[in-house]
């Protein structure tokens, strides 16, 4: 992140550091409190506070909006960390105090113990296979601990008046579905896909070739039942960390995991979503096939599978290793979720998903000097020209022509780029007198 990020400067100037230091000093009953250096991530600023013979951490949100969602997001993060501390042996920082108010300090904050060690991401690529296996063995046990924390529905963890409770993820994220009704991964991802299809229909009214975007999303929804089995979730839904990446795993000189950081955005999830390899042993979609890290990841995944089977078998000697089996078959689910959740990765991930499902490399092949149409192109063409998407495809085409005609009359300032369906209808209704010569049936 840029050192000139204005959010950093604004946050540093907003926080009443002397008052916060004095609060920490009195809380821990020490005499001296001196602020040290600070660092930051995408959403939070972290500053270290030296107290006599110890150091603690103050974490401050960047761009605090003060909305109910922002408040709930912090409350859920704290509740998740406190739950982990009470119910598991997973090493995490200890919450000393937190506040979602801006009074006195000028901003919400979390005070927590400082975890020792360095990010796993800073040493992982330089480690030999044996050392990586040592770390993976610890990661496997952490994942098993998490998998044993089961809940009856999807959502975010809070501490309620009568104990721990799960609330909808929509309480901590503006873009999330209401997850309170989902008890398995398949129903969630079908609903997620339906919402995505609706967005494609309603956003960017008249966008050229929208039918292809829709057909790809339709394909993804159609394969969800092959990737997620409701039977896997009958035993409950595990708690899934919001950012279980190597930069949030601290290790010491002996490669012992000392802490798992950043529990913001954590939520219960289906086994299918939970049981996906840690990203630091997964090939990046942008890598070339001959990237040397690909071969290393093959070895690490085999090691992970062996360690998971051994550890799960030890914890449940009479079981059939459901978590191990889920991890070993996670490639399709990984690609599916990456394509849906990270638009900036879509162009790289989606072809891999299509190839994974159909077992074909979706690239043009040269046959007798002519380009042969790809299987995926034939698939989409069949859906849109003769299949179940034929009617909708024609509707999108008609909407494109309608948008162009209305724009010719009203101009691009009124019919702006990216206008959605509701906005287009509003524009048309305001200017009906100027559009009397056009067939407006397709905007309804």
TrEMBL record:
Pfam families the UniProt entry points to: APH
Residue ranges of domain Aminoglycoside phosphotransferase in the record: 41-266
InterPro entries: AGP_Transferase, Aminoglycoside_PTrfase, Kinase-like_dom_sf
GO molecular function, one term: kinase activity
Keywords: Kinase, Transferase
Protein name: Kinase-like domain-containing protein
Organism expressing this protein natively: Collybia nuda
